[in-house]
Amino acid sequence: MAREEALGDLDMSVQEAIQRRSEDFPGVHTCRASDTLLSVMETLRKTNVHRLIVIDEHNRLVGLVSLSDILRAIVM
């Protein structure tokens, strides 16, 4: 939306905003709570995103893990 200069149109619905995504949108990337930090870091690097949606065995949302979360866990 920022590329399309649509930031002034903040009264649109979430559905409308999703439909306006550019063709090169990378999509939503997921992981499981049982994945290793190494595999999650590799996914973040390969997909060039900073957050992954954590899903359970039924593909239901469990949480969100960010690059900052992982770095914090490694440093502490």
From TrEMBL:
Keyword Repeat: yes
PROSITE patterns, A to Z: CBS
InterPro entries on file: AMPK_gamma/SDS23_families (IPR050511), CBS_dom (IPR000644), CBS_dom_sf (IPR046342)
Assigned GO CC terms: cytoplasm; nucleotide-activated protein kinase complex; nucleus
One Pfam family here: CBS
Protein name as it appears in the record: AMP-activated serine/threonine-protein kinase regulatory subunit
Transport recorded as keyword: no
Species in which this protein is naturally found: Dimargaris verticillata
Keywords assigned by UniProt, alphabetized: CBS domain, Repeat
Domain CBS: 24-76
Family: Belongs to the 5'-AMP-activated protein kinase gamma subunit family.
Gene Ontology molecular function terms on file: AMP binding; protein kinase binding; protein kinase regulator activity
PANTHER family: AMP-ACTIVATED PROTEIN KINASE, GAMMA REGULATORY SUBUNIT (PTHR13780), LD22662P (PTHR13780:SF35)
Gene assigned in the entry: SNF4_2
